[in-house]
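Re: beginner question about structure tokens

> Can someone show what the tokenized structure looks like for a real chain? I only ever see the sequence side.

Sure, here's an example I had lying around. Input first:
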Amino acid sequence: MIGTGTGGVLTTLGQADVFERAGTRRLSPFAVPMLMPNGPAAWVSMDLGAKGGARTPVSACASGAEALALGRDLIRGGQVDVVVAGGVEACLPPFTLAAFAQMKALLTRSADPATVSRPFDVKRSGFVMGEGAAMMVLERAEFARARGARDYGALAGGAVGSSARHITASDPEGQSWAMERALRDADLARADIGLVHAHATSTESGDLAEAEAIGRVIGDHAAVTATKSMTGHLIGASGAVGAMAALLALRDGRLPATRNLDELDPRVELDVVRGEPRTGQWSAALANSFGFGGHNVSLVLTR
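And the corresponding structure tokens:
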């Protein structure tokens, strides 16, 4: 179960250039596998000999998180014992960057590239695109114990929702719905959540909408972090990376600080970790992922 936001856009555009320049016969015979969004899931299934299904959620920036949620549903429904799940993205050709810039989503201040991704900071001006991948092995508990697997924690709950409101705008109502349903799915109360990994892309409207939703559903007691300040926005991989960061924070008792947060936006009434990492013993975490199209995914992880 491997989500992606754009599929093989880099190789697709490369083959399109070859076609325009040299014609059909110069195209790679692998051009179709290069452009298939389901390619990563298909290749991994072949590598592992996994025959329980190779699936590809394509839900923009929520794709990786949705893959984890759907993978958990497969296990809980008794269809499989193990799911390899996560997200991948490599979408940094000039065309994609220009497209995001044209819709005013990318940063506009770039004097110091190391400091431009600034979730929740008053001087944030848009997100920085990155690329990467993150994968988890989800297993039925008794199956994992029987084979002596190393246990990092549990994916205790999840919710996948759709705002059905606007193709790009963030929606606190839809985000709140996903968080509330994820808590209910995990059979936990808001007070049980000790830390939150925010989607927080470093856009003004997106950060404020999520801060409102977190405050409404979780409150201001939880420690909040946003690792996109360090990785940039990995689009379809970002939800899986965020869930992994939350899981490891629970395991290690150490939550990474949000980088480049010099002055917290006063409209963000949350305990956002900045400066040094926060240490503590937390039992449960919430990880949010939201995507263009109104895709809202929240995951609950436990120690």
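Each token stands for a local structural state, so reading them left to right follows the chain. The chain is about 35% helix and 20% strand.
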